[in-house]
Each structure stands twice: as C-alpha cells, then as structure tokens.
From TrEMBL:
Signal peptide: none annotated. Belongs to the outer membrane factor (OMF) (TC 1.B.17) family. Transmembrane segments: none annotated. Pfam families: OEP. This is TolC family protein. InterPro entries: MdtP/NodT-like, OMP_efflux. It comes from the Bacteria. It comes from Thalassolituus marinus. PANTHER family: BLR4935 PROTEIN, OUTER MEMBRANE CATION EFFLUX PROTEIN. Gene3D superfamilies: Outer membrane efflux proteins (OEP).
Length: 412
C-alpha cells in the first residue's frame, strides 16, 4: 500500500491479515524485475530489434552509395570469315576495351547524400522506437502495480464489509436491528467478494501483459519496487527541438536530397572507354579511345522528378504539423502531469479523512448512534477514496509517459 495512507489500528490489523494470506500462497514465479532492469533490456524487444535492423539496413545502403560504378570489358573482332581478302582470319582487327561509366555533375555526391539522409532518419526513428517502448513498459508496469494494489484494496474492503456484517448480526441477535438488516449486510458481503474476484482477474491479466511485453521467462506475481510512488524528475529540462520535430526535419532533408538525385538522373549518362586494337594483317597494335554519351530524347525522368518534389512538399507539411502539434501536446502533457500531482495530494488527504470518518462511524454504529445505511455510505466513501488515490498515481505515470515520449527520453 502507499505509505502516505494513514491507517488506524483496526485497518493495520486487516492489512497484516491480508499480507499473511498473500505470503501463504504458493510462489509460482519471481516478482517482476525493477523498471530500470526492463529498460536495460530494451534491445530484446522485437519492435526495437526491428528498428535496429532497419537502421543497419539504412547504414548499409549509405555505405553502398559510396561504391563506384563497375567498369565493363568488351572484346570485338572485325573483318573475319568473309569474302575475298577477308575470307580467313589474316585481315582480322581485334579490339579489347574497358568501358567506365562517369558520374558527372555531382551525381555520386547526390546519391551518397540522399543515402546518408535516409540513414539519419532511420537513426532518429530507432531512438523514437526505444523511447516509445520504454514508455509502454512504464505504463504496463504501473498498470500491473495498480491492479495489484486494487486487488489488495478489494480484499481489505471485503474484510471491512464482513466485520460490519458481523456487527450487524450481533445487533440483530440483541433485538436492536430487524432481520432485514442482516439480509442487506450479507448482500454487501457477497458484492464485496465478487469485487475481490474481479480485482484478482484484473491483476492476473495485468501481470500477464507485463510478462509478455517485457518478454520475461517466468510469469510475475508481484511488482517491486514501486513505480506509482515515484515522482518525475522536476529538474529535467526539455530539449529545444523535440524528437518528433527532428524526425520531420530529417525527412524533409532526405526529400530535398532525393529531388537532387532525380534531377541529376535526367542528365546524359557519360562513359569513357580505353582499349587496344590488334591488326592481324600488319602484326601490330594501336590504342583506342572513346566517349559514350546518352541522348535524353525520350526519357527525361520527369515523372520521377515530379514524384520527388511532391514527396518534398508532403515532408514540409509534416514538419509544419509536427512543430504545431508537438508544442501543443507537450504543454497539455505538462499540464496533465502538474494536475495529477495536485490530485495525488488531494487524494491522500481524502483517504486520511475517510479512514478517520469510518473509524468514528464504526464506533458510533456499535454504540447505536449511527445507522447501517450511514455506515455503509461512509465505508463506500473510504473504499472509493483509496481507489481514487491509486488511479491518481496511475494518471501521473501516464502523464509522465506522454511527456517523456514527446521529449525523446525514457520516463522517470
């Protein structure tokens, strides 16, 4: 339970009983590792493995972009096996040449720059994936902890309801309450018992989600240390350029470089050749030189250039949207985080007041000054206040997860 919840002696007794029951259960698995340990093992999560693999692929493409075009080798023989003086091989002219494509007008540099820009985008997306997974683990971890706490609260609520029902039965036996009150008390006990079963199912489901999300070998049965009680670092300074905006800027840069690549592809393809020609008739050789230039008469790459420019405009629009939304989302997340902190303080005070009120109401009920209906209402208020305190802490975790995702960091 939260250490900020002040409990009277009777509540402490119930808590001890609940703890004894929990520890008496057979241990089926180890508790969940601390949140920090889960963060350190992010590289095992499939989605982060995928992001890392995509980054490796982008880096490999950037490395491949530096490679020069391969030369081609040709062997050609002329003036052979014809008629007259060319009937045999004596008048043959054989040419051996090497042809090397030339990347002029900065084509190679543009190709390298585009590949490097794509690798930068992949690196930023890898970082974003890591922080997203870290935030998801924090949320699942805290939800499992909250479900465990709510189960313990449901067990304590059942204990309180049974204790109140026993008190009602004593009053009925003494003739101070009608038998109808006993039926109502038993109905409340059954309702509280059903709430315990539901809370247990929710807890087991949350533990299963955590086991799957963290890829743990053994299923968990407990959460420690607490993440719900941890306060975000108030001294953290948000980065000047959020990660979402950085990704949008990198995508725009990559789109710009892609336009340059497509524009240069419309230029003529130039290749140079160097060879040796063998004159069989004169038993001698001579060098050959050549330049081959393509004529862009039919294919000027206009469609690819238009597509690249359209993608550039789309990237620019995404950048504008990212700048507007990120600032607004961060302000909203910070406001929700501040509100959740205030809500936690109010909820803790509400729990203390509700526990004191219930203690006085129970004493008044035993003395015959408080009706069963009033006692039930005050007990319900206590149960609600305790659950509200848990939900307030869970809301703080959610706000911190959202804020950390916008800032490009792990929560807490």
């Amino acid at each position: 339970m939260f250490t900020s919840f002040s409990r009277p002696q009777w509540a402490v007794g119930f808590a001890v009983a609940v703890t004894a029951v929990l520890f008496a259960l057979p241990s089926r698995a180890e508790p969940a590792p601390p949140y920090e340990a889960l963060i350190e093992s992010l590289d095992r999560i499939p989605i982060t493995v995928e992001a890392e693999a995509l980054l490796d692929a982008a880096n490999a493409r950037a490395q491949q972009a530096r490679a020069l075009p391969n030369p081609s080798v040709s062997v050609e023989t002329e003036n052979v096996y014809g008629r007259g003086p060319f009937s045999g091989y004596d008048a043959a002219e054989s040419t051996f040449s090497i042809n090397q494509p030339l990347e002029l007008w900065g084509q190679r540099g543009a190709r390298i720059g585009a590949a490097q820009a794509e690798a930068k985008v992949a690196a930023l997306r890898r970082d974003q994936t890591q922080w997203t997974v870290a935030g998801s683990l924090a949320l699942i971890y805290s939800e499992a902890e909250a479900a465990s706490l709510q189960y313990e609260l449901a067990v304590e609520a059942l204990e309180l309801t049974e204790a109140d029902a026993n008190a009602v039965m004593l009053l009925i036996e003494e003739g101070r309450e009608p038998s109808l009150r006993g039926i109502q008390a038993n109905s409340e006990v059954e309702s509280a018992r059903a709430a315990v079963d539901e809370a247990r199912a929710n807890r087991d489901a949350a533990f299963a989600r955590l086991t799957a999300a963290a890829m743990l070998v053994q299923p968990v049965t407990a959460i420690e240390p607490s993440l719900l009680n941890r306060s975000p670092d108030a001294s953290f300074q948000a980065m000047g350029n959020p990660l979402t905006v950085q990704i949008a800027e990198a995508e725009l840069e990559a789109a710009n470089k892609s336009v340059s690549v497509e524009r240069l592809r419309a230029r003529p393809a130039v290749s140079a050749s160097l060879g040796v020609r063998r004159f069989q008739e004169y038993d001698t050789e001579a060098f050959t030189f050549g330049i081959n230039v393509s004529l862009p008469l039919f294919d000027r790459n206009k469609g690819a250039i238009s597509a690249a420019r359209a993608e550039e405009r789309a990237a620019a629009a995404r950048l504008t949207t990212a700048k507007l939304q990120t600032q607004a989302n961060r302000s909203a997340a910070q406001a929700r985080l501040d509100a959740s902190i205030t809500r936690i303080r109010a909820a803790d005070k509400g729990v203390a007041s509700a526990e004191e009120a219930y203690q006085l109401a129970r004493a008044g009920f035993d003395a015959g000054r408080i009706s069963q209906l009033e006692l039930r209402s005050i007990r319900s208020a206590l149960i609600s206040a305790r659950n509200t305190a848990v939900n307030a802490r869970l809301a703080r975790v959610r706000a911190e997860v959202e804020l950390a995702g916008l800032d490009g960091r792990a929560p807490f």
